[in-house]
Amino acid sequence: MKIDILTLFPDNMNAMLHESILGRAARRSILELNCVQIRDFTENRQRQVDDYPYGGGWGCVMMAQPLKSCVDHVMARAPGLRRRVIYMSPQGKTFTQQRARELARDYDHLVLVCGHYEGVDERFIEACVDEELSLGDFVLTGGELAAMAVADAVCRLVPGVLSDAACYTGESHWDGLLEYPQYTRPETWECREVPEVLRGGNQAEIDRWRRKQMLLRTREKRPELFANFVPDEKDRALLAELERDERRMKLTEPLECRPATPEDLEAVDLLIRQARNYLKRHRVDQWQGDYPASEDMAASIAAGECYVLCYAGRVAAVFCLTMEPQANYAAITDGKWRSDGPYAAVHRCAVEAQFRGSGLADRMLAEAETLARSRGCSAVRVDTHRYNEPMKALLRRCGYQFRGHVLVEEPIHDPRRQAFEKVLRT
Ligand SMILES: C[S@@+](CC[C@H](N)C(=O)[O-])C[C@H]1O[C@@H](n2cnc3c(N)ncnc32)[C@H](O)[C@@H]1O
């Protein structure tokens, strides 16, 4: 790519153009960048480039002749190239990444003309200019900054200038979206952490998170861009997920964890029913028989082993916690428990549908751990079905580790469960 910038101030421009990435590409002959002094092409002894405007008014206008002679000169030095003469002007079309892509793709030689003063004689534009480009809806004193911006944006898209096309194809405005947020070391800076997913090393998860962030921040920061963005199937799925995230209940009031009473049984049964249906919908063969029946919950309430979490006066979650050693846990296979002291077992967890994703389930486990600790337990143990992904994700998120397999009594249905444990810090 060859770029000639026609200007009255070539020295400053040259210094900037030959620095850093563009400078290195020019030294490797991938780019040829020149700043040409328009004044060198005047035909008067004073080397005058401007004159008063016909019709009166403020300032001076750049004359057509030196501009045309300058354009002719740079064109003669580069015959046969696919060329575009562009006048930098606040009256042009606004320059965009899309236009930068087209210019990099369709031309080998750009001639960028910088006006000054009141602008240039209109006849020069008519005779010599292919296109006018504006940096935005504001007026600069000269076209130099605009020409620099166009040269920079176009040149970085020329093959070989950046190390890989991925350097720019993932950036803002490439496909109508803004880029995802970026982070570098250190991991924690002024109490602000780099998002967990970026530290986890799972590239598929990272890519998914980043795409979601691109959609989210474009929608928030640049709604007018987002309105023109056409999402594909994957993006539509991510957008639906974002909407679900936003609909999720935010916990703004205090939660109360207390032992359930017989008066809570109706609400508790409802939560168990909701959870059973949820598991059925997700084809998890757990709780698909009678267990846990209303009688089981009533018995746990009577034994003081059933707890409810109440939010804004209503029962929002339930769990059972027992300090009784579990016979089936003693027969763990494919692994072993880590703790050997007294432990608490958590069973029959259910969160009201409306609170899913609100963080309530995490709080429920935290409450169970507090209760277990207060009773001298050194660990909490939980089992769940291997296909119960939300429960397994919750357990992992809350620091539980997979220990092996246990069997539960659910005749007809799949009795195998994955066993998790969290050793409690004292
Ligand atoms: C003061 S301006 C002239 C503005 C002109 N009288 C008008 O009102 O349209 C001087 C020069 O700066 C450049 N310029 C000013 N604003 C610009 C913008 N937004 N984009 C690109 N070039 C600009 C043009 O080259 C222009 O000839």
What does the overall shape look like?
elongated
- Main-sheet strand order equals 10-11-12-13-14-16-15
The residue-averaged pLDDT reads 93
Q: Beta fraction of the residues?
A: 15-25%
Low-confidence stretches: none
Indicate the percent of residues in helices.
25-40%
Number of discrete domains: 3
Topology diagram in text:
Layout: E1 2-7, H1 10-17, H2 20-27, E2 32-37, E3 50-51, E4 61-62, H3 64-77, E5 83-94, H4 97-106, E6 109-114, H5 122-128, E7 131-134, H6 144-155, H7 166-169, E8 188-189, E9 192-193, H8 196-200, H9 203-221, H10 223-228, H11 233-247, E10 255-259, H12 265-281, H13 294-302, E11 306-311, E12 314-322, H14 327-330, E13 343-351, H15 360-374, E14 379-384, H16 389-397, E15 401-407, E16 416-423
Parallel strand pairs: 1-2, 1-6, 5-6, 5-7, 13-14
Antiparallel strand pairs: 3-4, 8-9, 10-11, 11-12, 12-13, 14-16, 15-16
The structure holds S-adenosylmethionine.
S-adenosylmethionine binds at residues 88-91, 114-116, 118-120, 134-136, 138-143, 146.
